[in-house]
């Protein structure tokens, strides 16, 4: 079995254009994410997937500089691009960590992958079917064969734009499992993903607080933000588009 994390990124974000290459402490957001994923013990490889549009050339250049494989495909068909990317990497198990989640805790990624390995009968395991972890800590693990099946079943552009969405919407066809956050991580009120300038301000503050120390995890982030209530409130009123696709806490 070969387990590969596929990071889906592009520079054409409407609310915060170019967000994955915005720099914190002289390193792009994508670089911080990759650095944290490289601490995972249950990943055989990490690949970056972006589109063929010339505006995404800087992502490909970053990957070349970092020694990362970069797969390029359709701009809008994220499902197709993700599948092709994982197949090119000879992956049996795919892991999705979103490009706008630079604070992802490597320990959570490893725990999710192990939980999937320990459940032989699953097609998909994630912690984002229902929001119990802080948004920004999403991890999805799935059989690449199941993803390939979903790609055959749907031509809906709105569905294909969201990668694993077809699987997540069809529990009657796929064996799905949601992992609920343990008590220490059950803080869905903390918004740790990167969609807006308000999010960037919070994420920047977290990285600046821990400095060169890259071993901080979600527990450390929670403690830091709870000590700075005015900071964690900065993005509380931002409308989140992803909420329509999952159960709320």
Structure characterization notes:
The chain has helices at residues 29-37, 57-66, 78-88, 106-118, 144-153, 157-160, 165-169, 197-210, 218-226, 229-232, and strands at residues 3-8, 23-24, 27-28, 45-51, 69-73, 93-96, 124-126, 140-143, 176-178. With 249 residues, the chain is of the alpha/beta class. The protein has one domain: Spore Coat Polysaccharide Biosynthesis Protein SpsA, Chain A (Alpha-Beta Complex), CATH 3.90.550.10. Strands 5-4-1-6-8-7-9 form a seven-stranded mixed sheet, sandwiched between helices. The chain has a two-stranded antiparallel sheet with strand order 2-3. α3 (78-88) runs antiparallel to α5 (144-153). The chain is globular. The model has no long low-confidence stretch (mean pLDDT 93).
Strand content: 5-15%
Enumerate the spans where pLDDT stays under 50 for 5 or more consecutive residues: none
Reading off the top of the CATH hierarchy, the class is best stated as Alpha Beta
The main β sheet shows up as: 7 strands, mixed
Please name the defining characteristics of this protein:
249 residues; alpha/beta; Spore Coat Polysaccharide Biosynthesis Protein SpsA, Chain A; seven-stranded mixed β-sheet; two-stranded antiparallel ribbon; globular
Topology overview:
Blueprint (H helix, E strand, L loop, with lengths): L2 E6 L14 E2 L2 E2 H9 L7 E7 L5 H10 L2 E5 L4 H11 L4 E4 L9 H13 L5 E3 L13 E4 H10 L3 H4 L4 H5 L6 E3 L18 H14 L7 H9 L2 H4 L17
Parallel strand pairs: 1-4, 1-6, 4-5, 7-9
Antiparallel strand pairs: 2-3, 6-8, 7-8
Helix pairs in contact: 3-5
